[in-house]
Amino acid sequence: MRVYITTPIYYVNDEPHIGHCYTTILADVISRYYRLFGYEVRMQTGTDEHGQKVQQSAAKRGLSPQAQCDEYSKRFEAMWEKLEIHPDHHFIRTTAEFHKKAVQEFLRRLEKAKTPEGRDAIYEADYSGWYNVSEEMFISEDDVTEEGKSSGRIVHLTEKNHFFRLSDYGEWLKTYIQDHPAFIQPTGRRNEVLGLIDQGLSDLCISRPKSRLSWGIEIPFAPDYVTYVWVDALVNYLSGIGWPEDPDWEKWWGSGVEVLHLIGKDILKPHGVFWPCLLHAAGVPLPTTLLAHGWWTRGGQKESKTVTQALAAQLPVRHIRELIEEYGVDPIRYYLMREMTLGNDQDYSEELIVARINSDLANDLGNLLNRVTTLVRNHFEGKAPAPGTPDSGGEELLASVKACVEEIAPSEAGWGDPRTKVESIRGCVRMANQYVTDREPWKLLKEGKSAEAGQCLAAALWSLRVLAVLLHPILPRKMEALLAQIGCPAKKDDVVWDGRFDLPAPGTLIPGGEPLFPRIDWKAVEAKLAQSSKETRKEVEVPRMELISIEDFKKTDLRVAQVLAAERVPKADKLLKLQIRIGSEERQIIAGVAEFYAPEEIVGKQIIVVANLAPAKIRGIESRGMLLAAREGDRLRLLTLDGDGVGDGAKVG
Ligand code: MSP
User: Which of 6, 15, 23, 263 to probe ligand 1 with, by most ligand atoms within 8 A of CB?
Assistant: First the structure.
């Protein structure tokens, strides 16, 4: 069986940070596990180099777009080398000639395609609307902000463009997703995509006039245009394996291959909606699985360039580059895989990194290795003792280790969640330690029961070897060192599961060595961090606010209201239409909360509204009042009442 695993390709206007590193390490770890169990694997990552953002950031720095791409692309490549991403991985750049050709061929096929409704998949039309320059997309009226307009980030445009008739593919896509339950994972994300389809899909503008954007791939049937960067980027998954010219591409795509796209939840729509429809139109089979993971957050906010800058002064958490320098690559890989449950968000803290290193790696694994090799060196001339017939504890340990191998191996259903896998390996490490503690081989040796002591140590050594092999995909350099310490050296990056539970063989030299995971004193690290942050701390700016008098405030009539009914506003992803009751009066308001609350979730809640706001029309629908909610980054929560007993209509203030 063959497996093709991809990461998103990263934009070349940002330094690689913990989020990018996580996805790429995850892809590497899953690839390595498949390799370990004998699968043929191909892993691909790379950089997304076209589009407005790149053109603009290059211009700001006085560089050509190509120079900007070359510089940033190298940073990503260098980071992957540092992070021990398997040397066989493929790194793709969308400015490569072969990729450009593939995108053009893909567009030619789209142009010839008919939709499931029998219409042309591509058509030309005028488009006029608000355009977000940094996000590279047209946006709805609701998303236009004054700040966006004045900074030039949001502009109004009318232009002739080429569209992909995505709206004709909704039914087909829905059926496909329903027929292929494993296509989008985890289930929550699958439901999210089904929800998007139910709201109705809008056609996708796939062109940008060269007059506005020159940094892109020319559309073969419309030479005055370049293609939209997302179409360009998605095709990397195909061009990277030689599509369409190299017939070998089918070795890595189609029947008999597990094609796994790893993505962050932020790019679910292009992957879960655009990509399958584009592929279907171009006559290419769909990938097997889209696996969307959550975000690494800091102080509850998604890690990104801006957050890094804003929080650096406040939180004792450093950039991944510094974390690697302080703790080493393998422990950081381990922490990222061990800590995050696939699909959920996860806040990260340096203190927790240290806690995990100390407990899992130094105390459990390191201690087991150290105890066993020291006893073998001191009492068995440094040679692996004969296993004899294991006692019941030894039998139990070996049975658990065998079961662990089964759990770690990929199955029909894919490979699974690294956190759960690590959990089961950790269980075995703890069990091996407990076995040695209970059996007390040092006591047996004192009593002259050398064969029994040897038998215990051999069982521990065998378990250690298997567990080191099983941990190799996550901690490649450290596990190679461990294997060398127990007389089972392995070539760099070349460890496969051989099915053997009887190594090292009796008599093998067990050289032992330095502790693999020295304990870290968090208090000392913290003191060092506090010292350096004192030296570099900048004043955190508190936004200046204009003060108002109590009289001004009293002009706002805030009231408690009861939500009687709620429904989505068609074709407006963010809006809910609410019927509310304020005392004896019922009225309607439009609220921009649809991304955070389902209609059924909000019905029955007591909310706070600005009751005397002048009525307004939003999307042609009248709104009389505004509800209050708190927003922080990507979260939004409604203001409601504590406890009950206050009737609707009550005044707030
Ligand atoms: N270029 C597009 C992807 C095109 S794929 C055909 C893009 N690039 S990106 O540089 O913004 O990287 C997005 C990916 O980086 C996310 O989907 C995710 O995999 C990873 N992460 C970026 N920040 C992240 C976190 N804070 N946490 C976890 N991963 C996130 O979008």
Answer: 23
* Residue where a domain stops, chosen among 542, 559, 577: 542
Lowest mean pLDDT among 140-154, 330-344, 421-435, 630-644: 630-644
For ligand 1, atom 5, which residue shows the shortest CA distance? 8
Query: What pLDDT, on a 0 to 100 scale, did the predictor assign at position 13?
Result: 86
Total domain count, the chain: 3
Q: Are residues 286 and 363 in the same domain?
A: no
**What does the pLDDT average to over 330-355?**
94
> Residue 73 is part of a domain; what is its CATH number?
3.40.50.620
Is there a domain that residue 331 lies in?
A: no
Does residue 462 sit in the same domain as residue 346?
A: yes
Does residue 390 lie in a domain region?
Answer: yes
- Give residue 67 CA to ligand 1 midpoint distance, Å: 22
Contact 23, 293 (CB under 8 A): yes
User: Do 391 and 269 fall within a single domain?
Assistant: no
Q: Residue 251: which domain range?
A: 2-293
Pair 319, 17: CB distance under 8 Å: yes
Q: Is 60 part of a structural domain of the chain?
A: yes
- Looking at residues 245-249, what average pLDDT do you find? 95
Radius of gyration of the chain (CA): 29
Question: Among the atoms of ligand 1, which is closest to the Cα of residue 234?
Answer: 6
Kindly report each contact of residues 530-534 with a partner whose C-beta sits within 8 Å and lies 24 or more positions away, as own/partner: 530/316, 533/313, 533/316
Crossing angle of helices 367-379 and 450-471, in 10° steps, is 140
- Distance from the alpha carbon of residue 266 to the mean position of ligand 1, in angstroms: 7
What is the per-residue pLDDT for 56? 85
Domain boundary among 485, 512, 542: 542
Buried b (16+ CB within 10 A) or exposed e, 338-365: bbbebbeebebebeebbebbbebbbbbb
Give the contacts of 118 (CB within 8 A, at least 6 positions apart). none
Query: What's the pLDDT at 134?
Result: 72
Regarding the beta carbon of 10 and ligand 1, being less than 6 Å apart is answered: yes
Q: Are residues 27 and 145 in the same domain?
A: yes
Mean of pLDDT values over 565-587: 90
Atom of ligand 1 at shortest range from CA of 10:
10
CATH number at residue 453: 1.10.730.10
Average pLDDT, the chain: 92
Cis ω before 504 (30° cut-off from 0): yes
Measure the N-to-C terminal CA separation of the chain; round to a whole number of Å. Answer: 66
pLDDT digits (tens, 9 = 90+) for 138-149: 788 888 999 889
Position 340 pLDDT exceeds 70:
yes
**Does residue 545 have a pLDDT over 60?**
no
> CB of 266 closer than 6 A to ligand 1?
yes
621 & 534 share domain = no
pLDDT tens string 459-482: 999 999 999 999 999 999 999 999
The verdict on residue 174 lying in a domain is yes
Verify whether ligand 1 is closer than 6 Å to residue 233 (CB atom). yes
**Ligand 1 site, residue 237, Cβ cutoff 6 A:** no
Q: What ranges in 447-592 are assigned the alpha helix state H? A: 450-471, 476-485, 522-536, 550-554
20 lines ligand 1 (CB under 6 A): yes
Cβ(23) to ligand 1 under 6 A? yes
Q: What CATH number does the domain containing 612 carry?
A: 2.40.50.140
Over residues 311-318, the mean pLDDT reads: 54
Q: How confident is the model at residue 540 (pLDDT cuts 50, 70, 90)?
A: very low
Residue 132: its pLDDT value, please? 84
